[in-house]
Design goal:
Elements lengths: L9 H10 L2 H6 L1 E8 L7 E2 L1 H14 L1 E11 L2 E10 L2 E11 L14 E9 L1 H16 L1
Length: 138
Amino acid sequence: MPGMTDTTGPGAFRAAIESGDLAAAVALFRDDVEFLSPVVHRPYRGREELRSILTAAFTVFEGFRYTHEYGGADGHVLEFEARIDDRAVQGVDILRDGDGDGDGDGDGDGGLSQLTVMVRPYSAATLLRERMGALLSG
């Protein structure tokens, strides 16, 4: 509803990321959250995996900022820009809610259920894979 603050869905996720509050961002997701990576073919599952990935992303991305936001019945998209060294990165975070109604508010069964990240260009995605891989494997 207009004028209401989003405390459980995509708006809350965006606010948590923009303020650097990773714990608040992760808490918005269901325990069995699925994370779909731009560079790894298998999904990651669970809040702890998501926490590790977001922590690494905060280390790798420089100047991260959301630039646009799109919502619909099937999910919510947050477009972003960042840098990795001298490479400009453009990407999207795609959020799906866990209550099956597609409104992104997570009001049915405990929060957001899926985060998919896509990035471009290929050279930035390759650099992202290298940097994230080093952080997550060590």
